[in-house]
């Protein structure tokens, strides 16, 4: 099936989200759709899947104009989407979920044997290892995606939209998913692949379309004619700039944090490392390797069950997060800014001052807004948070500015050690560099940073040394030479070292 | 007007203010209506009765408001109120303690029962709805067993005398007590670290916790305060009735939610409006008093209050959606504006 997007435009009050977007999606191809946050990808996907109607232009299926008034129309036309938010019912079985749109019946009641045999038929096309009688809540995220794809196939989808499919699955699972994608493409399906990850796009797609500021920046370019630099240039409208870290001299004689054979209530074993003053210590690993969980244990949000944690040479036990902050000057920036990092409905002022409320309050516990502003204002200026007012609700800021507010909060608290978890996830490339430079700057001022990231270029730009984590243990430590190729090979080597034999087997099982 | 944060900061600021203005307009409308239909509505006798029941409605509203701030609820306020009422009756009539001592002890009992709610909620991690539903029945049952549902109606005469007291012809001192409590709550939520912590815990407990706010403690304190406020409302009724009756508190639940929700306190937590709660209570009291003066039965009052709560919840829902759309959604637009500015 050929899907033609012809001169599509969409306006929202005060802003044009899409303008004159035209390209074609062909059967038997994997078509990557790229763009920064706010480039219009989501709006376009919503139009293609019938959630929005375009204000201008039209969609054509095999040359015939179509008008989708609901997602149901799009599905009927053979277009299905696998969204980031899962659309499966956790307490229903895999089979029931796949067949939920049109369950086979006998004498007016659902024929469950047929539900499972039909579901099996679709699932066998992509992954025979998943049992149709398992409840969906017991599956991994990757398996849920497979089930969603099977559901789309059962609806006779000929265009399959995958929206950030690898955002929350491991590298091996992603490889298995790509195998499925290739197979479906070879069978003549059109796959639209939305992703932020350039490496993935280069590896899997046949053609790439890039949106920038709601317009086409590259339309259906064959991937063979593109390279990383060209795609980035199309996305940001200029060449990529790497953060200038300046000369970094870390005094390795001063250890501010040291873990000695730490085991945690979350399942870490034998974790040992040293963080020096002014150092950026990277913590790399696949999703699920236990990095965020380690951060939680270090800040007192989970328990250290054996081994020793030393801060500035003294053994400590941290009972809870407020103690970590107040007594040990240890802060944590979550990867999930919205759920765990900031109070979106509250103003910048109080989101920064929250960490020092107790400290700036008078003897009676009184605080005025002026007190908070005195703390927040200099930091908003110093970190160049772009906002019309310090009273702006944080939820209205862009991702990059939200992250600056998070960092400002910890500078206000006067932390000495900051754990930063995925500092630039969901932040556009332009702002990324600014955040990187900011992290470099605060360490030059004496802060020590434990940096968790799944973004290899980011790790190699920022970290002085890199701890590689695998299965809740440290697999190795690497000095950063800032040479991307050998570094990434060495890191991936450490990650896969233990599972070298298991890896191909797992892939076959999933594929 | 809005104690949680500077008005400019709130995405729903306009909605918030228009909400208060709208509420005031509706109240004025009802006052015109009742005054023209039943001139007795503005008699000093009725205004006095109105000011006394307004005082109680305001404090009941505050009792729920401080818990809504944490994103929770307290269904036990009626039970806590009546426990405090019966305790004060017992202490004054049976034990013969002086009035201030008995009142203070009754308030402490209310605070303790609220603390108990908060403690169990935080320790168990179970939703406050179910915990306070259980404790409401538990407290009420305990009180009935201990008191055998006997009314204490031989209280010191000063009690009833204070309840009958009028300032300026028709203002009960109880109303000033309620407004003083309101002023204290404004200070709490606007000018103290504790109040901010309660609001932060309500708006996003996880983010607050990771920012160093002792969230569990904030929730327990909010419930303790709610218990003390419920006890205060109960004691106000003791002054008004001149007796401690076991039937007090049974009909508090609806008005306790109506006042804050009408006044713009978010059910989801993180934002309270003290002035709004006072206005919300005023609307409830006005309706009750007006329907009474017009001799329309209590049945109609129930129907009206139910309708109004439903309408208020719809507005709250709309406000939530609106605020979210303004602040979180439209990432597309924000991003575009951003790049537009830089370009």
From TrEMBL, chain A:
ABC transporter domain ranges (all copies): 3-238, 247-496
Family stated for the protein in its record: Belongs to the ABC transporter superfamily.
Keywords assigned by UniProt, alphabetized: ATP-binding, Cell membrane, Membrane, Nucleotide-binding, Repeat, Sugar transport, Translocase, Transport
Alphabetical list of Pfam families matching this protein: ABC_tran
Protein name (Swiss-Prot/TrEMBL): Sugar ABC transporter ATP-binding protein
GO terms for MF: ATP binding
Gene source species: Kaistia terrae
InterPro entries membership: AAA+_ATPase, ABC_carbohydrate_import_ATPase, ABC_transporter-like_ATP-bd, ABC_transporter-like_CS, P-loop_NTPase
Domain of life of the native organism: Bacteria
Automatic annotation (TrEMBL), chain B:
Pfam name, any one: BPD_transp_2
Keywords: Cell inner membrane, Cell membrane, Membrane, Transmembrane, Transmembrane helix, Transport
UniProt KW Magnesium keyword: no
Domain of life of the source: Bacteria
Membrane topology: Multi-pass membrane protein
Annotated localization: Cell membrane
Membrane-spanning intervals of the chain: 20-42, 49-69, 99-122, 128-146, 167-189, 218-241, 253-279, 299-318
Quaternary structure (record): The complex is composed of two ATP-binding proteins (LsrA), two transmembrane proteins (LsrC and LsrD) and a solute-binding protein (LsrB).
Function, in words: Part of the ABC transporter complex LsrABCD involved in autoinducer 2 (AI-2) import. Probably responsible for the translocation of the substrate across the membrane.
PANTHER family the UniProt entry points to: ABC TRANSPORTER PERMEASE PROTEIN YPHD-RELATED-RELATED (PTHR32196), AUTOINDUCER 2 IMPORT SYSTEM PERMEASE PROTEIN LSRC (PTHR32196:SF29)
Protein name listed in UniProt: Autoinducer 2 import system permease protein LsrC
């Amino acid at each position: 099936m050929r899907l033609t997007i012809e001169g599509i435009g969409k306006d929202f009050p005060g802003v044009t989200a899409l303008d004159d977007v035209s390209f074609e999606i062909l059967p038997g191809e994997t078509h990557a759709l790229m763009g920064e946050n706010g480039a219009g990808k989501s709006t376009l996907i919503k139009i293609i899947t019938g959630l929005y109607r375009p204000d201008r232009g039209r969609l054509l299926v095999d040359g015939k104009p179509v008008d989708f008034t609901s997602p149901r129309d799009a599905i009927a036309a053979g277009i299905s989407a696998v969204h980031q938010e899962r659309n499966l019912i956790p307490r229903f079985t895999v089979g029931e979920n796949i067949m939920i749109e049109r369950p086979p019946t006998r004498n007016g009641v659902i024929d469950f044997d047929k539900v499972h045999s039909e579901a099996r038929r679709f699932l066998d096309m992509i992954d025979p290892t998943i049992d149709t009688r398992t409840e969906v809540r017991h599956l991994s995220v990757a398996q849920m995606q497979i089930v969603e794809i099977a559901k789309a196939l059962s609806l006779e989808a000929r265009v399959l939209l995958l929206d950030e499919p690898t955002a929350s699955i491991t590298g091996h699972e992603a490889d298995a998913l790509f195998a499925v994608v290739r197979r479906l493409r070879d069978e003549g399906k059109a796959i639209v692949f939305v992703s932020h990850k350039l490496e993935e796009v280069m590896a899997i797609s046949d053609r790439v379309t890039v949106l920038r500021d709601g317009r086409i920046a590259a339309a259906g370019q064959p991937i063979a004619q593109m390279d990383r630099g060209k795609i980035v240039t199309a996305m940001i409208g200029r060449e990529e700039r790497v953060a200038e870290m300046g000369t970094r001299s870390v005094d390795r004689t001063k250890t501010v944090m040291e873990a000695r054979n730490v085991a945690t209530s979350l399942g870490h074993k034998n974790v040992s490392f040293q963080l020096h003053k002014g150092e950026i210590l990277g913590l790399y690993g696949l999703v699920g390797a236990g990095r965020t969980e380690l951060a939680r244990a270090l800040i007192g949000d989970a328990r250290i069950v054996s081994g020793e944690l030393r801060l500035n040479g003294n053994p400590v036990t941290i009972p809870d997060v407020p103690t970590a902050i107040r007594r040990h000057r240890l802060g944590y920036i979550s990867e999930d800014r919205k759920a765990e990092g900031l109070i979106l409905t509250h103003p910048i002022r109080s989101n920064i001052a929250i960490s020092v409320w107790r400290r700036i309050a008078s003897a009676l516990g009184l605080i005025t807004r002026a007190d908070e502003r005195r703390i927040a204002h200099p930091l908003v200026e110093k970190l160049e948070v772009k906002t019309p007012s310090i009273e702006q609700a944080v939820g209205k800021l862009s991702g990059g500015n939200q992250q600056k507010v998070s960092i400002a909060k910890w500078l206000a608290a006067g932390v000495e050690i900051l754990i930063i978890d995925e500092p630039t996830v969901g932040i556009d490339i332009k702002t990324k560099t600014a955040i990187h430079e900011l992290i470099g700057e605060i360490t030059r001022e004496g802060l020590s940073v434990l940096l968790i990231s799944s973004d290899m270029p980011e790790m190699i730009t920022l970290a002085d040394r890199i701890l590689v984590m695998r299965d809740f243990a440290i697999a190795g430590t690497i000095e950063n030479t800032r040479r991307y190729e050998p570094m990434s090979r060495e890191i991936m080597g450490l990650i896969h070292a233990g599972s070298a034999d298991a890896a191909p087997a797992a892939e076959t099982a999933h594929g | 007007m809005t104690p949680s944060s500077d008005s400019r900061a709130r995405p729903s600021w306009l909605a918030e203010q228009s909400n208060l203005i709208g509420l005031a307009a509706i109240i004025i409308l009802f006052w015109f209506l009742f005054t023209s239909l039943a001139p007795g509505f503005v008699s000093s006798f009725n205004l006095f009765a109105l000011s006394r029941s307004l005082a109680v409605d305001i404090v009941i509203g505050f009792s729920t408001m401080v818990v809504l701030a944490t994103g929770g609820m307290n269904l036990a306020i009626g039970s806590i109120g009546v426990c405090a009422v019966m305790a004060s009756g017992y202490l004054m009539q049976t034990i013969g303690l002086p009035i201030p001592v008995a009142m203070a002890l009754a308030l402490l009992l209310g605070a303790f029962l609220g603390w108990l709610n908060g403690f169990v909620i935080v320790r168990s991690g179970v939703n406050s709805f179910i915990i306070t539903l259980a404790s409401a029945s538990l407290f009420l049952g305990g009180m009935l067993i201990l008191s055998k549902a006997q009314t204490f109606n031989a209280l010191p005469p000063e009690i009833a005398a204070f309840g009958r007291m009028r300032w300026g012809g028709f203002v009960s001192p109880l109303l000033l007590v309620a407004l003083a409590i309101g002023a204290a709550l404004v200070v709490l939520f606007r000018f103290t670290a504790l109040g901010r912590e309660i609001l932060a815990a309500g708006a996003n407990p996880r983010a607050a916790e990771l920012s160093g706010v002792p969230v569990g403690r904030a929730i327990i304190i909010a419930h303790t305060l709610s218990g003390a406020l419920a006890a205060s409302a109960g004691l106000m009724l003791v002054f008004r009735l001149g007796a401690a009756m076991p039937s007090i508190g049974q009909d508090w639940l609806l008005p306790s939610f109506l006042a804050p929700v009408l006044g713009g306190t978010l059910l989801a937590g993180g934002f309270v409006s003290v002035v709004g709660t006072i206005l919300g209570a005023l609307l409830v009291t006005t309706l009750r008093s007006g329907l009474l003066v017009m001799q329309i039965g209590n049945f109609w009052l129930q129907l009206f209050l139910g309708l109004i709560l439903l309408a208020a919840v719809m507005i709250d829902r709309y406000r939530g959606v609106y605020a979210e759309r303004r602040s979180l959604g439209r990432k597309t637009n924000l991003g575009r504006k951003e790049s537009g500015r830089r370009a």
